[in-house]
Amino acid sequence: MTQKISTEFTLDEFKTVIQDAVKNEIEKLNLNKPEIPTEYITRKETAGILGISLPTLNEWSKQGIIPSYRIASRVRYKKEEVMNSLTKVQSLKYKRV
């Protein structure tokens, strides 16, 4: 046997109740995701993945095509950003006239 509860809500109150319930469920899902550590790769590894030379990688870093990070005295790249930029790089190669 199911129980039914009958109450009167205004439309705004009903929206608020639904929004709060959805927000709580989303927060639960986000709390359960393990934090993936950022993997940094060297200039040489980055150039190898992209199939470019080190001087070209330097220029692309200066132009902002590939974001770079200085860690102490070394330049590193986030592997995830490098992989995501592959499509951007491919379109740049074929865009030149």
Structural account:
The chain contains 4 helices and 3 strands, in the order αβααββα. With 97 residues, it is mostly helical. Strands 1-3-2 form a 3-stranded antiparallel β-sheet. β2 (69-71) and β3 (74-78) form a beta hairpin. The model has no long low-confidence stretch (mean pLDDT 84).
Query: What is the count of β-strands?
Result: 3
The proportion of strand residues reads 5-15%
| Highest-level CATH class of the domain at 40-95 | Mainly Alpha
- Average pLDDT across residues? 84
**How large, in whole angstroms, is the Cα Rg?**
24 Å
Second rung of CATH, namely the architecture of the domain at 40-95: Orthogonal Bundle
**Which outline best applies?**
elongated
**CATH domain topology of the domain at 40-95:** Multidrug-efflux Transporter Regulator, Chain: A, Domain 2
The topology string of helices and strands comes to HEHHEEH
- State the distance separating the first and last CA atoms: 73 Å
Residue stretches low in confidence (pLDDT < 50, at least 5 long) are none
Strand order of the largest sheet: 1-3-2
Please work out how many helical segments DSSP would assign.
4
The chain-level structural class is mainly alpha
Described by strand count, sense and barrel closure, the largest sheet is:
3 strands, antiparallel
Tell me roughly what share of residues is in helical segments: 55-70%
